[in-house]
Design brief:
single chain, mainly alpha, Rna Polymerase Sigma Factor, Chain: A, Arc Repressor Mutant, subunit A, 2 domains, 8 helices, elongated
Length: 169
Protein backbone atom coordinates (compact mmCIF):
# COMPACT_ATOMS: atom_id res chain seq x y z
CA UNK A 1 0.00 0.00 0.00
CA UNK A 2 2.82 2.43 0.86
CA UNK A 3 4.47 1.57 -2.45
CA UNK A 4 1.29 2.54 -4.31
CA UNK A 5 1.06 5.82 -2.37
CA UNK A 6 4.67 6.70 -3.15
CA UNK A 7 4.12 5.82 -6.81
CA UNK A 8 1.04 8.06 -6.98
CA UNK A 9 2.93 10.81 -5.22
CA UNK A 10 5.68 10.64 -7.85
CA UNK A 11 3.07 10.67 -10.64
CA UNK A 12 1.43 13.69 -9.13
CA UNK A 13 4.70 15.60 -8.86
CA UNK A 14 5.71 14.69 -12.39
CA UNK A 15 2.45 15.20 -14.29
CA UNK A 16 -0.06 17.30 -12.35
CA UNK A 17 0.93 20.79 -13.59
CA UNK A 18 0.91 19.88 -17.30
CA UNK A 19 -2.28 17.88 -16.86
CA UNK A 20 -3.93 20.75 -15.01
CA UNK A 21 -2.89 23.29 -17.67
CA UNK A 22 -4.23 21.04 -20.42
CA UNK A 23 -7.57 20.46 -18.67
CA UNK A 24 -7.82 24.17 -17.84
CA UNK A 25 -7.44 24.99 -21.53
CA UNK A 26 -10.23 22.53 -22.29
CA UNK A 27 -12.63 23.77 -19.63
CA UNK A 28 -11.69 27.42 -19.21
CA UNK A 29 -12.68 26.91 -15.57
CA UNK A 30 -9.99 26.84 -12.89
CA UNK A 31 -12.07 25.05 -10.24
CA UNK A 32 -13.52 22.50 -12.63
CA UNK A 33 -10.00 21.76 -13.85
CA UNK A 34 -8.85 21.18 -10.28
CA UNK A 35 -11.78 18.82 -9.75
CA UNK A 36 -11.04 16.87 -12.92
CA UNK A 37 -7.34 16.50 -12.11
CA UNK A 38 -8.17 15.44 -8.56
CA UNK A 39 -10.72 12.90 -9.81
CA UNK A 40 -8.14 11.64 -12.33
CA UNK A 41 -5.73 10.81 -9.52
CA UNK A 42 -8.48 9.21 -7.44
CA UNK A 43 -9.37 7.00 -10.40
CA UNK A 44 -5.70 6.24 -11.04
CA UNK A 45 -5.43 5.11 -7.42
CA UNK A 46 -8.56 2.98 -7.62
CA UNK A 47 -7.72 1.52 -11.02
CA UNK A 48 -3.98 1.18 -10.58
CA UNK A 49 -4.30 -2.58 -11.04
CA UNK A 50 -5.59 -1.94 -14.59
CA UNK A 51 -2.56 0.07 -15.71
CA UNK A 52 -0.46 -1.98 -18.13
CA UNK A 53 2.89 -0.40 -19.03
CA UNK A 54 3.00 -2.72 -22.04
CA UNK A 55 0.01 -0.93 -23.57
CA UNK A 56 1.27 2.61 -23.08
CA UNK A 57 2.95 5.04 -20.78
CA UNK A 58 1.63 6.47 -17.57
CA UNK A 59 1.30 10.06 -18.78
CA UNK A 60 -0.98 9.03 -21.61
CA UNK A 61 -3.05 6.82 -19.30
CA UNK A 62 -3.62 9.77 -16.95
CA UNK A 63 -4.45 12.14 -19.83
CA UNK A 64 -6.93 9.61 -21.22
CA UNK A 65 -8.67 9.39 -17.85
CA UNK A 66 -8.75 13.18 -17.51
CA UNK A 67 -10.15 13.61 -21.03
CA UNK A 68 -12.83 11.02 -20.31
CA UNK A 69 -13.77 12.86 -17.12
CA UNK A 70 -13.94 16.12 -19.04
CA UNK A 71 -16.22 14.58 -21.68
CA UNK A 72 -18.38 13.05 -18.93
CA UNK A 73 -18.75 16.46 -17.32
CA UNK A 74 -19.57 18.07 -20.64
CA UNK A 75 -22.23 15.48 -21.43
CA UNK A 76 -23.86 15.87 -18.01
CA UNK A 77 -23.81 19.65 -18.13
CA UNK A 78 -25.19 19.65 -21.68
CA UNK A 79 -23.68 23.01 -22.55
CA UNK A 80 -20.98 24.29 -24.85
CA UNK A 81 -17.78 25.14 -22.98
CA UNK A 82 -15.75 28.12 -24.12
CA UNK A 83 -12.23 26.65 -24.17
CA UNK A 84 -9.67 29.09 -25.41
CA UNK A 85 -10.99 32.41 -24.19
CA UNK A 86 -7.81 33.00 -22.24
CA UNK A 87 -5.30 31.08 -24.37
CA UNK A 88 -3.29 34.14 -25.26
CA UNK A 89 -2.71 34.77 -21.55
CA UNK A 90 -1.86 31.13 -20.87
CA UNK A 91 0.34 30.53 -23.92
CA UNK A 92 1.57 33.81 -25.40
CA UNK A 93 4.42 32.02 -27.20
CA UNK A 94 1.90 30.66 -29.73
CA UNK A 95 1.65 34.16 -31.18
CA UNK A 96 5.28 35.31 -30.91
CA UNK A 97 6.09 34.94 -34.62
CA UNK A 98 3.44 37.46 -35.72
CA UNK A 99 3.71 41.23 -35.86
CA UNK A 100 1.67 43.02 -33.21
CA UNK A 101 -0.48 45.09 -35.59
CA UNK A 102 -1.53 42.03 -37.62
CA UNK A 103 -1.65 39.49 -34.86
CA UNK A 104 -4.28 41.10 -32.61
CA UNK A 105 -7.10 40.70 -35.12
CA UNK A 106 -5.83 37.30 -36.27
CA UNK A 107 -5.66 36.17 -32.64
CA UNK A 108 -9.29 37.18 -32.10
CA UNK A 109 -10.36 35.36 -35.27
CA UNK A 110 -8.36 32.27 -34.33
CA UNK A 111 -9.77 32.16 -30.80
CA UNK A 112 -13.29 32.54 -32.14
CA UNK A 113 -12.69 29.85 -34.78
CA UNK A 114 -11.28 27.47 -32.17
CA UNK A 115 -14.21 28.11 -29.84
CA UNK A 116 -16.56 27.04 -32.66
CA UNK A 117 -14.87 23.63 -32.95
CA UNK A 118 -16.57 20.65 -31.34
CA UNK A 119 -15.06 19.52 -28.05
CA UNK A 120 -13.51 16.45 -29.72
CA UNK A 121 -11.77 18.63 -32.29
CA UNK A 122 -10.58 21.12 -29.65
CA UNK A 123 -9.17 18.21 -27.64
CA UNK A 124 -7.11 16.95 -30.57
CA UNK A 125 -5.96 20.47 -31.45
CA UNK A 126 -4.87 21.22 -27.89
CA UNK A 127 -3.12 17.88 -27.56
CA UNK A 128 -1.22 18.59 -30.79
CA UNK A 129 0.31 21.72 -29.28
CA UNK A 130 2.40 19.73 -26.79
CA UNK A 131 2.34 16.09 -27.87
CA UNK A 132 3.60 13.93 -30.71
CA UNK A 133 1.15 12.16 -33.03
CA UNK A 134 2.05 8.83 -31.42
CA UNK A 135 1.19 10.16 -27.95
CA UNK A 136 -2.10 11.67 -29.12
CA UNK A 137 -2.95 8.36 -30.74
CA UNK A 138 -2.33 6.53 -27.49
CA UNK A 139 -4.20 9.07 -25.35
CA UNK A 140 -7.28 9.04 -27.58
CA UNK A 141 -7.12 5.35 -28.46
CA UNK A 142 -7.17 5.96 -32.22
CA UNK A 143 -4.63 5.15 -34.95
CA UNK A 144 -1.85 7.66 -35.58
CA UNK A 145 -3.01 8.11 -39.18
CA UNK A 146 -6.44 9.09 -37.89
CA UNK A 147 -4.85 11.71 -35.64
CA UNK A 148 -2.97 13.19 -38.62
CA UNK A 149 -6.08 13.12 -40.79
CA UNK A 150 -8.26 14.77 -38.15
CA UNK A 151 -5.65 17.47 -37.53
CA UNK A 152 -5.50 18.16 -41.25
CA UNK A 153 -9.28 18.64 -41.41
CA UNK A 154 -9.35 20.62 -38.16
CA UNK A 155 -6.76 23.05 -39.53
CA UNK A 156 -8.68 23.29 -42.80
CA UNK A 157 -11.89 24.02 -40.88
CA UNK A 158 -10.10 26.68 -38.81
CA UNK A 159 -8.77 28.39 -41.93
CA UNK A 160 -12.23 28.39 -43.53
CA UNK A 161 -13.81 29.80 -40.38
CA UNK A 162 -11.14 32.50 -40.11
CA UNK A 163 -11.67 33.48 -43.75
CA UNK A 164 -15.42 33.69 -43.14
CA UNK A 165 -14.84 35.87 -40.07
CA UNK A 166 -12.49 38.16 -42.01
CA UNK A 167 -15.12 38.63 -44.72
CA UNK A 168 -17.73 39.50 -42.12
CA UNK A 169 -15.38 42.08 -40.55
Amino acid sequence: MDDLKSTLSRWFEEYHMDLFKFIYKLTGDYHLSEDIVQETYVRAYLKFHLFDPGRGNLKNWLYRMAINLYHDHERFQNKEIQVLEKISKESPNIWENQRDDESQLDKVFLEEAISKLSSDKRTILLLSLRNKFEEISEILGIPEGTVKSRLFYIRKELLQTIEKLRKEE
